[in-house]
Task: structure prediction
Amino acid sequence: MNDIAGGHTLKGFDQDLMNLHSMVMEMGGIVENQLARAIHALDEADPGAAREVIARDRLVNDMDVRIDEELVSTIARRQPVARDLRNLMTMNKTVSDLERIGDEARKLASLVEEIYGSPAASPPNSGLVHDVRGIAVYGKSMLDNVLDAFNYMDVEKAVDVIRQDERIEEKFRAALRRLATYILEDSRTVGYSIDAVLALRALERIGGHAKNISGYVVYLATGRDVRHVDLSTIVDEVLKDLK
Result:
C-alpha cells in the first residue's frame, strides 16, 4: 500500500486512514468475488450458483454502510483539510462505485438465473453467451487492475484501466452488432437477445465504474481531475509529469 496515512502528528489519524483503506480493499475483494461467482454461474449454466451471488449481495451493501459510518465518524473527529480531506472523499467515491459494481454483478447473476432457471427453457445461442462471457472476463480484469491501482496509488496502472474502458466500449458495440445479426437470422432468439443486451449493459457499466475509480486514483496521487478529460490528454499530460 502507498503511504496513504502520510505521517500525521496524531498517530490515531494515521491509523484511521489505514483502517479505512483496508476496509475499502476488503469491500473490493468481496465485489471481485461476486463478479467471479457470477461469471462461473454463467459458464456452468448454473441458476443455483447465480442465486448464491444474488443472496451474497447483502455483504457488499453491509460493507458500504460500515465504511460510510466510519468515514463520517473520522471526518467529525479529525476535521481533515487539504490532502487528508481529498483522501477521504476519494475513498467515499470509490466505495460508491464498488457498490454499483456489486449491483451489476448481481444483475448478471439474475439474468443467468432467468435464462437457465426454467427446466423447460431451451439453451440460448452459444454465440450470445460467448459475447457476454468474454466481456465479463474483461470487466473482471479491469476491476482487478483498478483495485491494485487504488491499493498502491499506481497512476500508470490507473491510466491503463482508463485505456481498457475504451476497449470494453468497443467490445460492447461489436457484441450489439452481432446480436442484431442473430435476431435477423432467427427471430426466436429475440428473448435471449434481450437478456444478453441487459447483461452486456451491466458489464459495460462495470467498466465505467472501474474507470471512475481510476480517475480518483489519478486525482489523489497527482491533484489532477481527469473525469472529463480524453485519454490522449491524460497520457500526454499526467503520465509525462511522472517521468
About this structure: The radius of gyration is 20 Å. The chain has seven helices and no strands. The chain has a mean pLDDT of 90.
